[in-house]
Structures are given as C-alpha cells and as structure tokens.
Amino acid sequence: MSPQANGDTGLSSTIPNKLAQQHEYMPGLPPKSLNTPVEVTPSPEEKAAGRFDDANIKLFLSGMHRDGVVILKDMIDPAHLDVINEFMVEDTKRELNKKDLHRNFGAENLQQGPPLTPSKYFFDDVYLNKLLFHAVNLYLGPNAKWNMVTGNNALPHGVQRQPVHSDAMCAHPPAPFYVVANVYTTDASAANGSTEIWLGTHHFNTEAQTPPGPHGETHITDEYVEERKTSLHPGFQPTVKKGSILFRDMRLWHAGVCNKSDATRYMIALGFSASWWHGTARFRIPAGTGVYERLMHGTKNHNITPLMVELPQEEYEKLRNAHDFSDVEKMTYEGEIF
Ligand SMILES: O=C(O)CCC(=O)C(=O)O
Fold first, then answer.
1. Is 42 a domain residue?
2. Containing structural domain, residue 63
C-alpha cells in the first residue's frame, strides 16, 4: 500500500512501510495519523452469542488503549431509539418551561435522563445489551459496576459550546477505571452537534486540568488545548449512526458543541466503573415498577453489577433530569487513596 493510500504522508520512507505492515496485520485499525476512531462491527453470530469474537476483541482493545474511544456499530435497533427520541422531544418542551434551568457548562446542553418507565420505553438492547456488557468487561476487567444512567441534550440552534473537559475530574490511576457508553437517539454528526472528542487524551491526568470549581468541575487548560489543536490529533466531531454506541474512556477529553440543526440531539449515557474503583455512585430507578427486577435479571451472569437507588415514582420523575452528581449519582469525583 502506498503511503498516500495509508493516509501517512510526510513521514520518512521507512515509517509508512511499517504502518502498511501494521495495517495488513489489523485492517480495521485506521493509522493513528488519520485521527479517526476505530469502528467495531459485530457479526450476526456475535450478536446472537452476546460476545465479540477474538478478531473484534483485538480491534476493540487496540482502539480503546490507543485512542480512548471506539464506535461499536449497529448494536441497537434504531426503531427503539426512535421511540425514546420521541419521548425526549416532549420531555425537552417540559424542561424548557422550568425556571432556572441548568445548562451544562453554560452551553445549550441539558442533562436529561432517559425514561425507564412505562415498559414501552425500556429496551433490552439499550439497557441490557450483552455485547455492551462484554465490551465493558473486556476493558475494565471482570465484575464491573454499573452506576450511572443519564443523558445529554444538545438543544437546536446552539451558539455556545462547552470547554474541552474530561469527566474524570479527580486524580486517577493511569489505567482504565470508568467508561461511558453514549447512545445517540438520532444519527449524529457535526451537522447536529455530535460530541467533540480528542483521541488519545485519556493518557492525561490532572496536570492538564484547571483547579476544581465550586462543584468540583474542571476543564482542560487553554495551554494543553492549544498545544493539542496544533498536533496531528486535534478534537473533531465523529459521525455516529443511530444504533451505534460511542464507547469512551471517562478520562478522554471531549466537549458538548453547538447543535446547529433544527432538531434536538439527544444522547443516553450509561456509566460503568471497574470493580476495584471505590466510587460511591448509584443510579436512580422508580420503585415498584419492575425496573429493578429487570435490571437484576438482565445483568445476572454477565459480570455486571447494577448499583441502584429505588425511589417512589414521583420522586424519581422529579430527579430523572437532575444535573448534579453531588448526591447519590456522584460518580468518581471524590477520588481515593488506598
Ligand atoms: O452532549 C454532549 O455532546 C456532551 C456533553 C458533555 O460533555 C457534558 O455536559 O459534560
């Protein structure tokens, strides 16, 4: 393969040869210089078994360790996401009527949890996706804890973007300890505000972050952002088809950017922690609705432990769109030393 075909121009002649060899060894792994995330597409057999095969495991882990993010393609029935999206469009109208509505980082970005009830909104391929659970265990190790269910809404006609930030706003080990599975309920791209991501930045820690603000929030310092912008790996907005999952290491730099389209861009976020990470988060579910039983049953034998707090339905509904994680949904921010 020529260096041009491999996307690696401007390098010494021996390096493209090495990259070509690497590409033959793992065809699905785009050269690092392309600044493109790995896409892993499960076969019908892998979907039926709920397990990735060895070739896809190799590709997935290579992408995650190199880039900190991978797109898991065609994991969810798009028709299920249409149903959730329809709910979220109506939910957004209700949210926008609220006084003092919180906007994440001051941008046109709302925290909104997806509906878990009534059961017509609870889809197994969204919340109990065996391939997703397999990916979580491959990356975080066995017995991962599932402790976050939330979502982000990039409102139409956005004009204010978020600062580049990492959700791992604490001193953490230089190892995978938390992942977020982002599920867009529509096709997502630069046209409608897909999340800006910065490949390879999961290797940074607090040295790249501003001191914590009043709620513990930090962002990436201008100095680090500017330097990265001029590197081969600036931030960009990926194209993610409805039904695919953007699987990212929590340490990855990213930002909610403007949705310039006319329609809401909604994205579910499911968060999983390594079993050895002592976060105290739990996600809220409505009590007495069967959601608890369904989640316990659906995660059994999949090495995933859901950590939940059951709330009376009314209270749950009030808190579904809570934006702060300072209470039970607090994720990992407290850090830990042991
Ligand atoms: O909605 C998005 O695209 C990302 C939002 C985000 O990163 C945040 O609110 O912290």
1. no
2. 50-319
Identify the residue whose tokens are 């310039």. 260
206: its two tokens: 């607090």
Closest CA to 81 of 207, 211, 201, 242: 242
Going by C-alpha positions, the residue among 149, 170, 109 that lies closest to residue 328 is 149
Q: Which atom of ligand 1 is nearest to the CA of 267?
A: 1
From the alpha carbon of 257, which atom of ligand 1 is closest?
A: 3
Mutational pocket test of ligand 1: of 101, 104, 264, the residue with most ligand atoms within 8 Å of the beta carbon: 104
* Residue 15 covered by a domain: no
The answer to the question of residue 7 being in a domain is no
Say if 25 falls within a structural domain: no
Q: Output the residue whose Cα is nearest ligand 1's atom 5.
A: 256
Residue 175: name the closest of 275, 246, 254 by CA: 275
- Nearest Cα neighbor of 181 from 60, 335, 320, 47 is 60
130 burial type by CB count under 10 A (0-12 exposed, 13-18 middle, 19+ buried): buried
Instruction: Tell me the torsion sign for CA atoms 123, 154, 178, 64.
Output: positive
Q: Are 322 and 329 in contact (CB under 8 A)?
A: yes
Tokens of residue 53, six digits:
């095969």
Those residues with Cβ within 8 angstroms of residue 293's Cβ, 6 or more apart along the chain or in another chain: none
CATH number reported for the structural domain that contains residue 297 in this entry? 2.60.120.620
Question: What are the DSSP calls for 88-100, one per residue?
Answer: HHHHHHHHHTSTT
pLDDT digits 0-9 by tens, 227-244: 999 999 999 999 999 999
How many residues in total does the chain contain?
338
116's tokens: 């878990």
- Give per-residue pLDDT as tens, 28-86: 999 999 999 999 999 999 999 999 999 999 999 999 999 999 999 999 999 999 999 99
Q: Which of 274, 152, 253, 167 is nearest to 203 (CA)?
A: 253
Residue having the nearest C-alpha atom to atom 2 of ligand 1:
256
Structural domain count of the chain: 1
